[in-house]
Amino acid sequence: MRSLALRAVVPWGLIMMSIDAIVAPLLRVELFQGLSPLQLTEVARRAERIVFRPGDTITQADTPGQAAFLIVGGAAVWTGQSAADATEPIEIGSLIGEMAMLIEHEYGATIVATSTVRCLKLRRETMHEMMLEDRWLAQHLAGKMAARLQRTASALREIDVDTSDASDGIAADSVIEQQQPHAPVAPQHH
Fold first, then answer.
1. Interior CA angle at 25 toward 136 and 94, to 5°?
2. Which residues are CB-contacts of 97 (< 8 A; sequence separation ≥ 6)?
3. Cβ contacts of residue 147 below 8 Å, gap of 6+?
4. For the whole model, what pTM was predicted?
């Protein structure tokens, strides 16, 4: 697996993509839904255009992240300890390392390109600059993150209730078994 340092940084100006083609993937990301066309265009304009070659590491688990990567084209996989442990494909339109573009955060997964992968790299420093310039953008992103945290908390509460109900059922079965009288066991003769 190649390190991040060996990835190819190619200006997309050479690839000739319109701003609309760059904005379109942003529209599919829940975090950016609801932004104005001008805001989306500004995010796209300030994003780095990165190309990873097959075998390049896009993010490395447990390493500090400085940016998120929006997969615009190509194929990548989530891996275990090595590329041989590939377990899950990453879809075009996926935003990888989303938290790293907003706060100091370690990447939670190792993502490896399996073909030539085009990405928009959204640096934390750049996002912070944009949020300082556009307070509504900061409020929008904070609101989207808060809504996601509320959904996660709600899902965890449901899991807690489900596991609590299941363990109550197991405990009740155990109490019932302990309360039932056992039939005497007849001695066996050989």
1. 100
2. 59, 65, 67, 68, 69, 105, 107, 108
3. none
4. 0.70
